[in-house]
Amino acid sequence: MTQEITWQLKKFEELTGIEVYEILGLRSEVFVVEQNCVFLDMDNKDQESYHLQGRIGASLIAYVRILPPGLSYPEPSIGRVVTSPSFRRNGAGIELMKTAISNSYTLFGVQPIMIGAQLYLKKFYEDLGFIQCSEVYMEDEIPHIKMIQS
């Protein structure tokens, strides 16, 4: 990374309207438009999650939500992992996930983290210490696997 990313973690109710708009915009840009996947992004889990935003200047370039234990899985989870297309392949995604893992440990204690990962990202998550713990399954017509990091 040549430009430093500023990270900010907020509960849902701490997000401004502009931040929610930017987050949903980035998620739609990648998950709906780029991946050509029509799905309902707003699943009523955002309200109980923590939202990690990565910005360069005022621009949102990376985002994840950190879910508490029991919301998606018995373990804490990291989801909606997204990096702006213009900031890929420069380490922003790795930095995003390392920051998310660290924040999950701070919020919920050091314990295993479960994710539902798109199959094509298996190696990316393995490099961060996650291991596959399910068979391949289809979600919104995209192959996924469950992975756990401990």
Strand content: 25-35%
Side by side, the strands of the main sheet go 1-2-3-4
CATH superfamily of the domain at 6-109: Gcn5-related N-acetyltransferase (GNAT)
Task: Identify low-pLDDT runs.
Answer: none
- Could you spell the SSE succession in H and E letters? EHEEEHEHEEE
Broad shape:
globular
C-alpha Rg (nearest Å): 14 Å
Architecture (CATH level 2) name of the domain at 6-109: 3-Layer(aba) Sandwich
Class by SSE composition? alpha+beta
The CATH class name of the domain at 6-109 reads Alpha Beta
Provide a count of the helices. Answer: 3
Mean pLDDT: 92
CATH topology title of the domain at 6-109: Aminopeptidase
Largest sheet: 4 strands, antiparallel
Span between N and C termini? 27 Å
What is the percent of helical residues?
25-40%
Total strands: 8
Description:
With 150 residues, the protein is α+β, with helices and mostly antiparallel strands. Helix content is 27%, strand content 33%. It contains three helices and eight strands. The strands form two sheets. Strands 1-2-3-4 form a four-stranded antiparallel β-sheet, sandwiched between helices. Strands 5, 6, 7 and 8 form a four-stranded antiparallel β-sheet that branches. Strand 7 and strand 8 form a beta hairpin. The chain is globular and about 40 Å long. The protein starts with 5 loop residues before the first strand and ends with a strand.
List the helices and strands and how they pair.
Blueprint (H helix, E strand, L loop, with lengths): L5 E6 L5 H18 L15 E7 L2 E9 L9 E7 L8 H17 L4 E6 L3 H5 L3 E3 L4 E3 L2 E8 L1
Antiparallel strand pairs: 1-2, 2-3, 3-4, 5-8, 6-8, 7-8
